[in-house]
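Q: I'm writing a short explainer about DedA family protein for a general audience and would like to include a description of its predicted shape. Could you first generate the structure from this sequence?
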Amino acid sequence: MEAYLQHLVAQSVGIALIIVAVVAFFESLALVGMILPGTVMMATLGTLIGSGQVGLYEAWLAAGLGCFCGDWVSYFIGRKFKGPLHSWKFLQRYQTLLDKTGHALDRHSFATVILGRFIGPTRPLVPLVAGMLNLPPYKFAPPNIVGCIFWPPVYFLPGILAGVAIDIPAGHNSTVFKWLLLGSISLLWLSAWLVWRWIRSAKNSDDAMSRWLPLPRLRWVCILSVAATVVSFLMLSKQSLMPVYGHLLWEVMVR
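A: Of course. Here's the predicted structure. Afterward I'll give you a sentence or two in plain language.
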């Protein structure tokens, strides 16, 4: 997929930005986003940003517009077809998730719309459920705009970091640095997920992961993961190639 995207980018930057917008649109579109590997595609597009083939701010704008349009299409689908959607067998498979999303929207609509954009399974569902619950547009719009502004760079970031690493000159030191960078980023994401599980431990008590990772074990695993993350980033900061990497990353940010 990355090779195909790179081929299209080579043809035209305009085409690349259209692809970014289309991927963000379908990643946000009701139901489609649940089966589309949008997270992987966004990270892949991030590598093109990191390698300098696509500008960060142009891609950010394109992705923001794409997800904004996808969310509002989903919202109006929910408002228009809420009756048939309630009885659709495909959606009934996700009834528990729909119920939890609806309950969260009833209690904390602003926070739910924003946070829902950053959580994979709920991203294409929150606007749909908001429409099905007849959440007023004036309540849906502000958090939706905030989410669409901040979501693209978060999902581009892993790919950007990888794309910048590609530009580091090859050699033994660069190989060690790249593997350490990959390990540090992986540990960071793992730690963030574990902390999130810990914070939500009371609400996750009935799922399969909680039975495999009960709260006492989760606490120890979370502490060890955070400690390993800190150590890995300290080691990364002492690498001789870190200034080179930092300079290349800064160029991407200001380009």
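A: For your explainer, you could say: The first helix runs from residue 2 to 11.
Q: Perfect, that's easy to follow.
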